Amino acid sequence: MWTEHDNALTCRYRFPDFKTAFAFMTDVAEAAEAQDHHPWWANEYNTVEFRLRSHDAGNTVTKRDHRLAERIEELATRHGAESVA
């Protein structure tokens, strides 16, 4: 579940294991490259966290961030993720 906080869309996902989390990150990297919009993210074992904002729009949330968030959400579902607060 994506929330807007501190001028960024944020979300954290938990996966069954590290291997699944890494496969998800690989898919997100391809999607981000295709959209030419690259997220800040962090990974620890089976958890991946995102912050999306558009630097060229003054570090605010734009439609580009929402589009990438939608794609990330689709990929997370495909990889069996659960949203983490």
UniProtKB/TrEMBL annotation:
- Write down the EC number: 4.2.1.96
Keyword Lyase listed? The answer is yes
Residue ranges crossing the lipid bilayer per the database entry: none
Its UniProt entry gives the catalysed reaction(s) as: (4aS,6R)-4a-hydroxy-L-erythro-5,6,7,8-tetrahydrobiopterin = (6R)-L-erythro-6,7-dihydrobiopterin + H2O
Q: Which residues form a coiled coil?
A: none
Which keywords annotate this record? Lyase
Family of the protein in this entry: Belongs to the pterin-4-alpha-carbinolamine dehydratase family.
Q: What is this protein called?
A: 4a-hydroxytetrahydrobiopterin dehydratase
**Originating organism:** Hymenobacter duratus
Highest classification ranks of the organism: Bacteria, Pseudomonadati, Bacteroidota, Cytophagia, Cytophagales
